[in-house]
Write a structure and sequence with these properties.
Layout: H1 2-22, H2 40-43, H3 47-73, H4 84-92, H5 102-107
Length: 112
Amino acid sequence: MYLFFIIIHLIICFFLILSILFQASKGGALSGTFGGGQSGSLFGNRGTATLLSKFSSYLAVAFFVVTILISLLSTPGGTASESIIKKEANRTTVPAAELPTPEEQSNTVTPE
């Protein structure tokens, strides 16, 4: 189930990026690339911008919902979502009982 939501999340991210890049900005963005200014003929002058902005809004809501679902599905024990840094830190951690005390460190003689 966790992997399913990760894949859905990646698909939503991809389409969210595309919908944002296709929106016309003050500079024209990528929407002018496909159609050369005639992209408004299918949806009207403002129809494409409205459609893309609504689509982006829906994708943004889906992005946040799936993100929350993924965070709720991740276990605190760290089986599926434990980071590499945490795994490495847990692997190289020395228990406090094995560490020398400050007195033991000062009593050790270093060879010269």
